[in-house]
Design brief:
The protein is 61% helix and 0% strand. The protein has helices at residues 13-24, 29-33, 37-49, 61-70, 72-85. With 89 residues, the chain is an all-alpha fold. The chain has 5 helices and no strands. Helix 1 crosses helix 3 and helix 4 runs antiparallel to helix 5. Keywords: GTPase activation. This is Rho GTPase-activating protein 15-like.
């Protein structure tokens, strides 16, 4: 992956929306067909923005932030352990 500004630069909004609609209809082949990495990154950003619940729950955000300042590895381990013990919720 050698594209600068992958998540910073915006992809074509109409293409991003097209991908979103296709994925919502369970047509994932559109992801393989798209050649513009900025459009794919934009679709991924849109997916995360539209989640009903954040990836890191609000109650765990401060712990995750503190852990990330220590190291990415530490954060990964903490996230794994947290998800392992909370998976039945």
């Amino acid at each position: 992956m050698k594209t600068d500004g992958l998540y910073r630069a915006s992809g074509n909004l109409s293409q991003v929306q097209k991908i979103r609609l296709q994925v919502d209809q369970n047509n994932l082949t559109v992801l393989d067909e798209e050649e513009d990495v900025h459009v794919l990154a934009g679709a991924l950003k849109l997916f995360f923005r539209e989640l009903k619940e954040p990836l890191i729950p609000y109650h765990a955000f401060n712990k995750a932030l503190k852990a990330s300042s220590k190291s990415i590895l530490t954060f990964t381990v903490i996230a794994f352990v947290y998800n392992f013990y909370n998976r039945e919720n």
